[in-house]
Amino acid sequence: MTNIDYEYFDEQSIDENYKCSICTKPFQHPVTTPCDHTYCQECIQQWLSQSHPSCPTCRQALSSDDLTPITTRLVLNMLDKLLVKCSLCGTNRIERGNLNDHINKICPKRILSCAASDILCRWSGTRDEYDEHLSTCNYQQLRPVLGHLIITNNQWEQQIQTLTTHLQSLQTAVSNPTKRLITFDKLTDRENKTDFGVIPEFYENLLWKNVWYMDERWVKITHTLSGWKNAYTNDHTCVAFNEKGNAMKICSKQQFSLVAFEATAAWHDDLQINVVGRRMKQNLHSSTINLQFKYSQVFQFDWNNIDEVKFVPINGVKHPGMDYEEKYFALTWILLGK
Predict the structure, then answer these.
(1) pLDDT digits (tens, 9 = 90+) for 251-267
(2) Which CATH number fits domain 160-337: 2.40.50.140, 3.30.70.20, 2.60.120.1350, 2.60.40.10?
(3) What is the 3-class SS of the chain, one letter each residue?
């Protein structure tokens, strides 16, 4: 029921059996007691909270736990069909159960905010003034421009956050000799390739399973409209990715810690990746992250004493204009600890 005031139409004719003896009004959310008395839920709760541990009618001991909501459809329908008058506009003979719809959809005196309130229009007024205001609202007329600026600003804020987190991870790696920042930039020179390939076994003394690398030059030629291009941040020129969009693993013969990594979705929005930390083939940690098409993100962890990190793509929503189903994602760098 709406919290807008209303009046009952011909209240005196309403059967007393449908009225609460505390507020003397027709029941709102009626509840019954073990002693078979009925009250509005709010009324009896307030009564009991005021150090009255008994039924107002018969004084039998009573607590909130003893109250049972009335769910009989016949009774609730009869209460909802009681006729009321809207105190805002004066419309009469509205069924009480329909008052919310009247207030929210019809009432001409309901106070509304401008549709452009999300872009800082401060106007508010009645529904019957709304259309006139909207036709002259400067904010609404500027919505296409302002909306684009807001989206762009949000993207810049996300990028700043990513860069800030990246910087913190780099500072951690530099200041702590036990941390190892692994990038993939030297792979294309080492392998003498400018496209893509399998990350060599024991690259950086790790075992890479189903992990490939891709050079930025190849992306600029073949995938200019993909999310791949957003993975080459901070002058990185090569990234790792999961071959065929399947799960990939990074393993080591020695235990290590997962500290952080930067990742981007290639074709999907909200691409869910289940990241699993394992030791001796036993799952020790698990976390699901969401990757984005439009920007890369840095994710921080504190997983110690593991010998394997597994990345398992789950699902995502294809970015508009993308036809690929495979759940590819890019790893720009990964920070590990000893």
Answers:
(1) 999 999 999 999 999 99
(2) 2.60.120.1350
(3) CCCCCEEECCHHHCCHHHECCCCCCECCCEEECCCCCEEEHHHHHHHHHCCCCECCCCCCECCHHHCEECCCHHHHHHHHCCEEEECCCCCCCEEHHHHHHHHHHHCCCCEEECCCHHHCCCCEEEHHHHHHHHHHCHHHHCHHHHHHHHHHHHHHHHHHHHHHHHHHHHHHHHHCCCEEEEECCCHHHHHCCCCEEECCCCHHHCEEECEEEEEHHHHHHHCCCCCHHHHCCCCCCEEEEEHHHCCEEEEEEEEEEEEEEEEEECCEECEEEEEEEEECCEEEEEEEEEECCCCCEEEEEEEEEEEEEEEEECCCEECCCCCCCCCCEEEEEEEEEC
